[in-house]
Amino acid sequence: MMKIYAHRGNKSEYPENSLAAFQSAVELGVEGIELDVHLSKDNEMVVIHDETLDRTTNKSGEVQTLTLSELKQANLLNVDGSVSEELLPTLAEVLNLLDELTFTGDLNIELKTDQNEYQGIEKLVKELIESKPRNYTIIYSSFNWHTINRMKKLEPQGELALLFAQPLMTYQHLIPEIAPHGLHIDFRLVAQLESANQGDLPLRLWTVNDLADIRNWLLNEERNIEVIMTDYPRQALALRSELASN
């Protein structure tokens, strides 16, 4: 069965990358959750997609120039743009929530080092993960393949995935050298991916939001598609259930 991952949680109904969005995703029954991690000025691991607060909160400023205390003064925005009561979560808070909810799926932690290197982020994340009890699988991913190599040295047995967007397609010949466990690829680029470089690696597609596209990928048997990441987990799960019953 193809897995459904909630991209930044159930962000179609709750503020993206919020505790509410993650809780909703777990309650819907997704097999995986994807989230993004940056470092604050005081080296705290915070869960937010952008390098700045501007798009997703009622504050502004670069994450790396603000302390956790300052970041906690920002309220996340609802889907309609109104201000919610949700605050920017730390990675530790998300892990605690997933433990409380007895989540047993996959947690895909994207290390957002493609714009800012965040020196030492790999070690900090690894140490935090090791300090927390869990019944779920951790998958690390990044657009910065140096981050993947650094994490591989720190966590030789860890599940590591390369993130692919259009500018990286010319580097797909390096896949065997990096030896990831999976490829997280923009679903529109699958046809451009050379199967010789993919090998038997599972493909995890981002971000599939149109129901027609979700249906097509759920029915696809030509490539080793393991996961559909979507902003609409409720609809994707319902469609998968409908197809399975037919």
Task: Please characterize this protein's 3D structure.
- The chain has 246 residues and is α/β, with parallel strands linked by helices.
- The chain has one domain (3-245): Phosphatidylinositol (PI) phosphodiesterase (TIM Barrel), CATH 3.20.20.
- 30% of the residues lie in helices and 23% in strands.
- It is built from nine helices and eleven strands.
- The strands form two sheets. An eight-stranded parallel barrel has the order 1-2-6-7-8-9-10-11, surrounded by five helices. Strands 4-5 form a two-stranded antiparallel sheet.
- Helix 5 links the parallel strand 7 (137-142) and strand 8 (159-164).
- Helix 1 runs parallel beside helix 3 (91-100).
- It is globular, with a radius of gyration of 17 Å.
- The two termini are 15 Å apart.
- The model has no long low-confidence stretch (mean pLDDT 97).
User: What integer value in Å does the Rg equal?
Assistant: 17 Å
User: Residue share in helices?
Assistant: 25-40%
Structural class of the secondary structure composition? alpha/beta
The CATH class, by name, is Alpha Beta
Pfam families: GDPD
Domain GP-PDE: 2-240
Protein name: Glycerophosphodiester phosphodiesterase
GO molecular function: phosphoric diester hydrolase activity
Draw up the topology in text:
Blueprint: E1 3-7, H1 19-28, E2 32-39, E3 45-47, H2 68-71, E4 75-77, E5 83-87, H3 91-100, E6 106-111, H4 121-131, E7 137-142, H5 145-154, E8 159-164, H6 175-178, E9 182-186, H7 195-198, E10 203-206, H8 211-218, E11 225-230, H9 233-245
Parallel strand pairs: 1-2, 1-11, 2-6, 6-7, 7-8, 8-9, 9-10, 10-11
Antiparallel strand pairs: 2-3, 4-5
